[in-house]
Amino acid sequence: MRKAITDVSWSATTETGTPTCAETATRALQGTTPEANRRTSPGRRIVTPWTVAAVAALAIVTAGTFTTLAGLLVGPLHAELGWSRGTIGVGSAVHMVVYGATAPFAAALMDRFGMRYVTAGALGLVGAGAVLTATAMTAAWQFALYWGVLVGLGGGATAMAFAAVVTERWFVARRGLVTGLLTAASVVGQFVFLPVLSEIVGRYGWRAAALTLAGAALLTGPLVWLVLRDHPADAGLRPYGAAEFVPRPAPVTGAGRRAVRVLLRSARTGPFWLLAGTFAICGASTNGVMWTHFTPAAHDHGMATTAASSLLALVGIFNVAGTVASGWLTDRRDPRRLLAAYFAVRGVALLSLPLLLTATVQPPLVAFVVVFGLLDVATVPPTIALCRTHFAADAAVVFGWANTAHQVGAGAVAFLGGVTRDAFGSYDVVWVGTAALCGVAALLSLALGGGVGGR
Q: Which of 214, 254, 359, 387 is deepest in the core (most CB within 10 A)?
């Protein structure tokens, strides 16, 4: 009887993941029908691959907003508490390194406990870290602990590795596009709200801005819990574009051990180090300089903080277009060549920046912002695609480790940039140095081999 039902095919498969009648009948015998899921999952009616992606994007936006607030805190902390920019840079560097180091373990924890638990917990951590920073911080080491560690942990768990997990589980078709959209969501959080936060800092102080973000994180948590599901099978669906129903895999125990095992295994291959190297330079030339030092560098040239923050917001707007376009291109072109092109143009743009910064916003600086925005996070879709090509089932965890390298590079330049400014009174050396690193990354991208055979 079971075989007879299995052999029936009464309706065509749809790309949205709706089960066929044959699948529904088969799963009725197995107790895995959508009706059974409705009884155990109250939010099932609103769960589709695209609503899951939308809620994941909201969580990424919320956590991502914390990432660039640190750039607005440099001036107020220096003025109010008398800390040097190098000291403040230590806290920012801790945040970036913890943010990156969390990613591979977060991806493994999602395999063990599910995305919903990990994401909701991460939003709680960033909220708690922001509250403690605003209400209990009196020393520089506390900034490193509250903002660096707590906000870094929560932000890292809801960053690009999270986007990779959502894409891998819920989508078969349109993976490049969805990766681009979720990456763009992180950009929205990191840049688009900067003018609003800058206005809050100017009018009400930096503590009010931190508490505002804490409230946003705590409000997003319940929506994540209501809609986010760990796997399409939990809602009786197939991944978007899948031809067959995909059972939910068993939880993977030993999440931490798995993350370390994947690192040790992948570290024996050339592609891993090439990917880690290019992504470290990506972090150095984005988070490390732009997110941390662009606003104070522009202020050094007489530009108002709000104007500089608005330029970063414009970077974020063009980031959305650039990242989505990059995802679309990644589905159609060699990702190695895309990476090389992105890094080469980014390097030229950064090399020109010291000549463009003035007290007022001029057309050449706006042109720089547009170009940099289009390229800033465009590296993510091709990097994830190359991780998938070389490391298959371990791709999300490997990308998490590459993201760790990204944040190590970012943290190093965030710290060294502050030290350089204290020593030379200018950021020019930092812009030129990171431009040279982008040239190296372009060459490394072309050195990556193709196919799983590179493992």
A: 387
